[in-house]
Structures are given as structure tokens and as C-alpha cells.
Amino acid sequence: MKRKLLSLIITCLLLVSMIGPTASAADESVSAIFGGGPFYQGGQSVMNDLKASGFNTVIIWSVHVNANGDLVLNDSLVCSNGSYVGNSAWVTQWASLKTAPTTVKRIEVSVGAWGCADFENIKSLIASQGTGSNSILYKNFAALKQATGADAIDFDDESCYDVASAVSFGQMCVGLGYKVTLCPYTNSSFWISVKNQLGSSVDRVYLQCYAGGAGNSPSTWMGYMGMKVIPGLWCINNSSGGDSASSVNTKLTNWKSSSAGGFMWLYDDMMKLASPNKTADYANAINSAFSGGQTSTNIALNKTATANSYVTGETPSKAVDGSVTNNSKWCSTASGDKWLTVDLGTAYNINRWVVKHAGAGGETTSWNTKNFKLQASSNGSTWTDVDTVTNNTANITDRSVSSFSARYVRLYITTPTQTTDSAARIYELELYGQ
Ligand SMILES: [Ca+2]
């Protein structure tokens, strides 16, 4: 009797563990990306790249504070006299960032930068007007929040280092509903004072570990700040050389015990890179460092893909190229079932799969794949069903499964769209594991 009860309990536990997709630990760590001009001038395609990337935080860089309190986004006046006066298209774009389907959960605006008098101007404005609701600082940062949807203001003071005005400014931001994040690269005593006085209003510390901050130790700064930090690295670039996605993964893995995530500098450089250093590759490099031994990147990326048919130019390889922009999809109009096979070259243990459908590439969501399954094979000819999805409507399918070993993986589509349209459109098939 006892034995039967025990086996029943074990069976129940096994069943529970097999039900449904499970949340990945990566959701809890920070993966942030800074961007300049492309974050407002690059149009919706840049927003779509970010939304599908895996980054959970987008930091708009950089808002400057003029001596009269005007707010300038790099070279463009955006807030004046308490109103947003920038391009209305940018507001629409930023609003789309956190609109499903997306991996972006948080937007920040970075204030200050090297060689700018922003925090000096903030200090003078606070001395003359304070931070009350009639002050120009208060009114313009209220307008900025409404326009950008920003959840936090990131302090990138690299010259003023005045504790009292930084704290007053931080308290004003909190009153407006912002969180405050700090972005130090040096002068730890200043940042320690600001952190101590603002307390839990500071919920993130982005530690620059590139350029002037290249020698920074996350564990040392964790001690200074009294909280885990988020180390940042510069992607491959023409100025400093920079880190590949693979190198980012290695460094963050080494810093994991003192880090709450990682950030990348700078999208303006990253957007020029090719696989395996595209936006999604860097996001994967960060997320996988914090998700418990997952591979550093999408295992299927740039592997050999074949299919039972495809439309001219929309080849199977487009489903494993890491891109969801510029019509980068495999499309099949074959009659009947359609399949896409990826040869991984060697066997991997896989525990998660992701499919990016028509909507993820900017096409109508009525073309999102409705019924499909994932199959595995060791020889490329005998297939076993691993996971089945029915009645999908989402742009992105993200499923966790019990780990399985396979060299060949097949996406097998039985109903390609929500309508009578009979074409399958797959922008990306991604595989993760160990
Ligand atoms: Ca693609």
C-alpha cells in the first residue's frame, strides 16, 4: 500500500514537471542595450529588431539638459516649456517597444554623457528653481516620461559629481514615477553617496566595463553599491575592437556571482554587424550567462537547413539566419504538410524551441502558423514527435520541453495559417539547450 502510494506520488510529480512551458530563469536577469540615433531615427524596423531580440531593457541614449532646462535628445529638441516637441513618430515607435509580442519590458532614458554639462546644468537649475512642480526640470521630465514611456532615468554623470543636486534630481524623478539607475565608470565615492541617499529608489547599477571603465571589477562595485551590479561591454566596433557575443557570454559567466544581468553598448555599432554578432546573438549571450548552463547562443543559428519546398529567394536558410527583418523567412507553398529540417552537425541536448511566425516579421498575424510540431531524429530519416502546438495565434512560439538529444530537428507544419492561405512563413526556428 505504501509502495503504491509512493509510486502514485512520483507519477504525479513527473506529470506536473512535464506540463507546459516553464518560465526560464533568463526572464529574471537584466539584459539591456543602449542606443543613440537608431533608437529614434531608425524607424519601426529598429523597434522590431529590438522587440524580437531577447533584450528586456532598452536604454535611450542620451538626453541632455540645456542651461534653460530644455531637453535635447542628442541633436534634437524634445521637451521645452513642459511639452514634448519632438517628432511624433518617435512616440509611436517607443510605445510599440513594450507592446506584445516583445521581449522588451522596460525603457530607460540615459541623462548625461562624457563631455556634456548636463549635470552641471541640473545643479544650476535646482539652485535657481528647485524641483517643485513649477520648476522647468519637473515639467520637462514629466513630458519626457509621457513621450517615451520610460520606466527609469539612468544617471550618466561623468563630470559634475555633485551629490546634493544629483540626489535632489533623483528624488524629483521618483516623484514623477521613474526609477533611478546609476551608470558609473569611476569616482566610487560619489556614486556610493548618491546610492546611500536615494536608497531603494535606485534599483539598478549599470557598471561600465569598457573604455574608461575597462578595468572595473563587478565584485568590487557590488561591495561599493550594496547590491549586484549589471556589467556592460562594448560590442564589436571600429573604435576599441570590442567584444564578440561569445566573449560577452564568457565574461558575464565569470562575473555572474556579483551581477544581476548585463548590458551592451552600443546598438549604433551592433546594427552594422553580421551573424553571429547580431542583436539577438548579444541578447542570447547575456541571457544564457544567467540561465543556468544554457548554450551561449541559439544552437540552430546558421546551421544547415533544408525543406520539402520553398519559394524563390525565401530559402530554408532564412529560417536560421538570426534575422526577422527584411523578409528574412522561409516560405513554402507546397500542397499538404510542409517541413523544415535543421542539421545541427552533431547531437545536442535541447530543452527549448522558439518559432518566429509571420507576425514576428511584420506581416499579418493571420498568417501565423496554426498547427505544427517539433520532431527529432538521429539519422535525418526516422522522426519522433517532441512537442505539438495546436491553434497557435501568437507571433512567437516559445516552448520549454524535457531535454532530448538530437542531431536533426524538424519543424513539421500541418496548418500553416489562421485562414485558407496555404503558405507557411517561418522567420526563425531557434533551438536552445546544452
Ligand atoms: Ca530569418
UniProtKB/TrEMBL annotation:
Q: Enumerate the UniProt keywords alphabetically.
A: Glycosidase, Hydrolase, Signal
Can you give the residue ranges of the F5/8 type C domain? 283-434
**What is this protein identified as?**
F5/8 type C domain-containing protein
The molecular function terms in GO held by this entry are:
hydrolase activity, acting on glycosyl bonds
Signal sequence, start to end: 1-25
